[in-house]
């Protein structure tokens, strides 16, 4: 006779002799794969056909190769030792339950099952060092079966390697956890089907001597087990455990896990906390009869039992309760006669046990049992509930709620003595719903744990959440609840099969035919479905009842445990069921599915966050508009076409304008959509009472136009500009006024209420298509509402994509914040579909470059902006010049717009608003009476906004620009400036459709609102006037605006969110200098960076329950690691080396992703560069500050510094001393660590420095390119980045730098800007230096005469600035050599070679200037030598770009290697 003893996990369990797939699903942690990652928690997932589970290593799905086991098993000692444990105050571990269990010894059965694991987890987490011994009764497995080895091995494989305990180890600390599992948790060999429990005598004696509490969870796992076998395990096994408890010297409590679902014949209504009579016969007689049965008589007895019970499992559990009652009654007689005192006994009944709400992890499950089977099948689209059950109570008991009651019951039970009543059920009088006789002692104690004790939800809502999860995370198409709970069963089955199952069935059949039959994975999946189906089928008879389970005993211990911090169950009265079920499905998906997707992360939100795309309460934009012309299907198809056009215009800007048919289709669809919203029959936008946040869009557009025209023309600045034009040019006033009106007409926004909601609905579907989640902090929203209440507001997001301001606009519409009118550059009016969306969202387009605006244009822009801000109440703008090509916050661009906001807040510019205002010019419109009596202005606040993207749709376009950006007008073919194959070439064979959520998550963070008036006052403080433009020199008139812009950028900086994708990208780039980085080191650096970010108080999107493997794989998926990362061999271990594929576009992609991390660690990175540049030298504090200052000032055009340099230096010095990276001795500082004496800490410093090294090399190469000025007196400023790229290609080929980022023209342009500001070069206007002939030739080559020339500056050395290295340098060559001192150099040979690079670059430039006949001579022009050579340089670069490039395979263009793309024949 053989059966399995496992956790009595609520209702259904599988037998020991079941087929491998059953054991696989019930115990997915067996035989762990030997991917040894010594410092990383490893999550075990479901087994494959070999019976060995796969380790959820981040690289497994990457290569899609077979992974071989390593030589050692994953043990708790092999897990991460560097994770900081979650520290908690002692007050968090106080209460009566904790006090009761301190140093108590516990005997557990079923610890390897679902509930058993959860109980053990809770004991360890809550008690920690105060936990007594926990004896785990575990059956030894047979070597021929999947559960192999001794009890200690089973505990290791099935418990300690479970994800819940891996995370627990990091939570309480490695040392504490390892001590507990080594010294406190003791596996005991035993089997409850054996009369003597198959325990060694020494083990039995130890338990009898020490055990205080027995928690009996074990039961057979097969609900249709043969009758005699089920009896042996469920009934006799329990009685044997009670016999053992009788023999224990210090027994205090016996807890037996039973079922709430045993007898389906009980009528609807209240189920008492009683034991109901068995209809099949007397319990003791039944036991005797079954035990004495011959094998051939068992079926007949089984049929007799099944007439009253659905299966043998429920029968034996019911029988066990009756026999416990008989046993207690006998013990009472023995005690009354002076025998042993009866110890307390509890019977804990549960309905369907489901995933944990909070513990061990949100959504944690283990095995297809209880409600797990139902949730699993719902996700497959399989009908598991009857049609009329949608509105019925979903009676699911979270496992952590049950565990708290199980453990809490023992703490409050007392010995009953002899005076008690056995809790048999009683007949209730008519009208009574339950019975609760006071002052009557019932024993044993019965605790009924059901959904009746929680806030309730229905199966309809459960299915809705299940469907929501699968629809958002996969391509599964599940029917809506209305179809799932259809009343007509026959009709449902036909429709359901045709619509949802037939396509998949045909696809599966075709695949199986092609593959020669069913795959092992498909076969196992089908068997898992079969198992879950049997589990669910056994529940049907119970779920159709409308029972109310009495729970007075549960309520009693609820009040007793209120003060217990770890066992309080009041929080479970307010479960967010939608979040719970989504967590539940995630647990089923990742822990029970045979092949869960690598890198899959949960979609539920952390506490305190909202998702704008999937709100709890839908609004207008979530509803489908009704149309009098188009059907719902037509509208869906139209929306899909519009989405494709929008995404195409983002990913491939300009492409749609070349396809007339596509553009015509867009225009037709766009117009039809607007028309539907303008003629909406559902009247969903007619009620405007709750739309006050929409400002002037609530008013008719006709009245707005006249009002705005009058106010703009009566603005003082407009009037002054008109008078000035009339006086200076003599143009008639009517003409000038007409021109002003034309400017206003071109500029102003023309949106209206239906357009706003149309834009909101379209953006809602667009963002759902692009992003998996769009998150915003509840705290940010609450603070923002408070700070902007009663004020005008200007939102200023970081400029990264064209979507930035639309995202802010959408968030405001979603959460009923003031919705802004958007200030856009005129260039954004030419982006096709995106421009159309901007227009209907209320955008107005201005000329941001002050040089491109006439005084009249500037005045009209300022007046209109002020009027709109006052009347509408909300605007949105950016302070950067353009979208960031690097992913970092850029320095402010002074276009005057921010000054207009400030001026409009501080001044009054409408005629008639001041006592001495000048009279209006005739025939300007006369101000209306309302205008002449304007109320006091509302104050204006500016809200900094930081939008953190994991990936952006325009990334390819931005990278193309920094790699291929050319001087304006210079025509250069792509294979000159293209360092690798174009993206379009590489993606030509790929599917171009956009998958839902392919750009990951986006986070919108709001900084503290800045009061404009107070900020202006602050800017005028004497202390701030001297340093308010400390980074970049600005004009006096822009000084205040620059001060405010810096405050805005500090707010943007503080409101950022860090994604793990950023961390992975930065670590991969760091690994290049050593030829790659191992998997183990990636994980170790991930943990270290995470802790450092949290220490800075910055939010990182990495929850405590998420293991590092899943997070890293998630990042790899978004970084397209399959094509952009390589690894050695097929076997993935801790030592597997991961390498970045050195394509320039790939490197720039990673760099863009990683650059957000640079903003966070910029000061530490700069100091680390200083640290590594002087690793063997003792330096004074002044020398360290001087070097730090040099780097800060060198990069002042490259980075935004939201901190004070000297204050930050002091903090960094303390930080390095605290971490013992620096030692102070005799007035000097020296580095204390090297790669040899402390590899881990040294690698951390190197990682930080790697954030800066690429930019440092770009500046070094730019300074090298300026060696051309030794031979040329001047050259076009815009040609310097092109020349820098040309030189960079040579240096990469010659291995003088490992950083492909130096090919970026943006860093070169910033370097030139900074060299100009520092004074190493000067800028002059071409017309002051060049002859007309030279200017003509430059125009032919595409260089306009409006672009500056750069030339060598004459510098004077200032001796009294000893801490400023820059002021001690004489020329650009000395700057180049100074930068060289800080670069990363692998050996002394390269160091010597690099010292000569400046001179070699000069020789390279000279080589391209040599020509038999110059370009000017060929055109018959005789120029002076300086002009001739400058023209020759520009021409040579252009000519080099047209040189044919031949690949190894004979093809012509778009080659991947830098040396090929630049047609380089030799190294530098």
Describe this structure in words.
The termini are far apart. Strands 16, 17, 18, 19, 20, 21, 22, 23 and 24 form a 9-stranded mixed sheet that branches. It is elongated, with a radius of gyration of 37 Å. It contains 57 helices and 34 strands. It is an alpha/beta fold and 1468 residues long. The N terminus and C terminus are likely disordered.
Features:
alpha/beta; 46% helix; disordered C terminus; 57 helices
Number of helices: 57
Extended strand count: 34
* Amount of helix: 40-55%
Radius of gyration: 37 Å
Largest sheet: 9 strands, mixed
**Terminal Cα separation, in Å?**
81 Å
Q: Indicate the proportion of strand residues.
A: 5-15%
Overall pLDDT level: 80
Low-confidence stretches: 1-83, 143-147, 494-518, 913-920, 926-935, 965-992, 1443-1468
- Would you tell me the structural class of the helices and strands? alpha/beta
Shape: elongated
In short:
The chain is α/β, with parallel strands linked by helices and 1468 residues long. It has 57 helices and 34 strands.
Layout of strands and helices, then pairs:
Blueprint: E1 6-7, H1 20-26, E2 44-47, E3 53-55, H2 60-63, H3 96-101, E4 106-109, H4 114-127, E5 134-138, H5 151-160, H6 163-172, H7 174-183, E6 185-189, H8 201-210, E7 213-216, E8 218-219, H9 227-247, E9 253-259, E10 269-271, H10 283-291, H11 298-306, H12 312-336, E11 345-350, E12 352-354, H13 371-379, E13 396-398, H14 399-412, E14 445-449, H15 459-473, H16 481-484, H17 489-514, H18 520-543, E15 547-549, H19 552-560, H20 577-592, E16 609-611, H21 632-651, H22 660-678, H23 701-713, H24 716-729, H25 733-747, H26 753-770, E17 773-777, H27 778-788, E18 792-797, H28 804-814, E19 821-825, H29 833-840, E20 843-846, H30 855-872, E21 874-876, H31 897-906, H32 929-932, E22 940-949, H33 955-964, H34 974-977, H35 983-986, E23 1001-1006, E24 1010-1011, H36 1012-1019, H37 1022-1025, H38 1039-1054, E25 1057-1058, H39 1060-1070, E26 1077-1078, H40 1079-1095, E27 1099-1100, H41 1108-1118, H42 1121-1124, E28 1125-1127, E29 1137-1140, H43 1144-1173, H44 1181-1194, H45 1205-1218, E30 1222-1225, E31 1228-1231, H46 1239-1250, H47 1253-1265, E32 1275-1276, H48 1280-1293, ...
Parallel strand pairs: 4-5, 4-7, 5-6, 7-9, 9-11, 10-15, 11-14, 12-13, 17-23, 18-21, 18-22, 19-20, 19-21, 25-27
Antiparallel strand pairs: 1-8, 2-3, 16-17, 22-23, 22-24, 26-29, 28-29, 30-31, 32-34, 33-34
